[in-house]
Amino acid sequence: MKWGYELDFPQLKIGHIMPKIPILQGGMGVGISLSKLASAVANAGGVGIISGTGISVEELRSHIKQARKLIKNTGYIGVNVLFAMNDFTEKMKAALEEKVDFIISGAGISRDMYAWGKQAGIPVISIVSSAKLARISERLGAAAVVVEGFEAGGHLGTDRPMFDILAEVIEAVSIPVIAAGGILTGGDIAKALSMGASGVQMGTRFVASEECDAPLAFKQKYVHAKKDDLVLVKTTVGLQGRAIKNHFTSLISGPDKLKIVKCLDCLKNCSYRFCTLDSLLTSVNGDVENGLVFAGARVDEIKEILPVQKIIDNLALEYAESIKTCQLTLQSM
Fold it and tell me: What does pTM read for this prediction?
C-alpha cells in the first residue's frame, strides 16, 4: 500500500512507541498471536503483541527474537502476560530481558510489574474494565490502559459495553487510553478516537488473517460463525469467556467436572472443573470441536481470511470515509 490514509489518524504515543496507525493487535493465547501475526501487524504500521500464555519461557524468548527478524523496518512488538498465571513473574522478566517495546497485562494487577518495567525502561500497560481499576493502574505506574468491554472475546472482566466504560476511564486518567472489545471497522476506530481514546486494540479481526499463528481450521471457525453460534462459558479462571459453540462448550455447559488427564498447574486459582489451558491447546492444534475457540461478539461480521496488510488498508480506508462523512454532516447542519 502507498501510505496515505494513516496520515489522517492521530498519533498514538506510549513512551517511545509511536506507530504509523493507532492499532494494537490483541494478545491472544494460546498460540493464536505469536511472532508471525505480531510481526505482520508491526510491518503494516500497527503494534504487534505476542501472547505469553500457554507457551514456555524459552518459546516466548524464541518468538520475540523471531518477530524481530521478521520486522522489515521500524516496528513495535510487545508481550501479553497474564497475572492469573503461575508463570507470570518468569514470563514478564524474560520479556523485559529480551527488551520488548512494552508489556501488557490483564487478569489482575501486580504492583511489582510496574516497578520492574520502570527499572528496565519499558512501558507497562494494564488491561482494565472500570475507571476504578484504571485509576489504580495509573497510580501504580501504568504507561497506558486498555479498556476492554463485554464485547471482547475470551475471558471477560465486565458485563458492560466498552463504549460505556470508555468515557468514564478517559475522564478518570491522564495516561493514554486504548479502546478494546467489539472494535471491528474503521468506523468503530473513528468513534473511539472521537470520544478521546488514544488508540484501539483489535483481536478477533486479526485471527481471520493469513499470518495469524492459529491453524486454518480455527480461522475457518471464525469465518463460518453466525451470531447465534456464540456462547458464554464459565472457565476455571473464575470468569466468563465468549466462545464459538462446539462439542466442548456443550460438555462444559453443565455443572459436571470433566476428567483432567494431566493438570498443568498453570493458574494461581483454579476450579479444576476442566482444564482451560488444555482445551485451548486442543483447538490451536486443529481440533476445533473438542477445545475452546474464543471469539469476540462481532465475529459473525467477518466473512473472509485476509492478509494483515489488507485488513489494515481496509480499516484505514473505512476510517477516512467515516471522518469525511462526519465532516460533511456537520457542514450541512
Answer: 0.90
